[in-house]
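Whether sequence alone determines local backbone shape is best considered at the level of individual chains. When preparing material for the folding task, we compiled for one chain both its residues and its backbone structure tokens. No coordinates are needed to read the tokens, only the vocabulary itself. For completeness, the protein is quoted in full, as a sequence line and a line of structure tokens:
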Amino acid sequence: MKVKFQALILGALVAVMAAACAPNPLEDLTVEETQVFITNYEPTTNFGSYQTFSLADSVYVIQNQRTGVSTTSQDFQVLDRVSSTLTQRGYKKVTREAKPDLGVNIARISETQTGVVSNFNPWNSYWGFGGGGFYYPPTYSFYQTTETYWYMEIVDLKNALTGQQPKVVWNAQIRGNGIFDAASLKSLVDKVFTQSAYLKK
């Protein structure tokens, strides 16, 4: 029994040491290398057939099914960059009252997830002398993670049917570290549109 007990301790120590020495590739990434740009579009859409667009004057904030609007300096930077980029690509910005062909929405989304994990316990069993023993019940840890990211979408107002939601013809997500740094915002928006060369008049 003593030999088995010592072997168990030795095995646990080796496992802990191996985990501590294992390289973590995520620790060596630069801020830019953590950033992910995801774009999607409706493949049947002829983006050259639209003339005008309208853009909200604030950023939507969506946090765990709660919504609101935001008008920070970073929000205005993103709004201005999206607006100027679409203008450079041949679209004309108009007010909502002018019945634009496209509607542009920008949001900052925060998702919080909570979970539970079972902790490794090498003593999770009966053992002892003379039939007696000790029992160590399983233990659990709770964790909570929050990710906040940019979300953009363009909807087709030109062909929207009365009483129905307009179709989303393009959307994009910007995720990763440093995506709310004021100095990086224009570059981040540019990278999204670089991936969307088809989005032009």
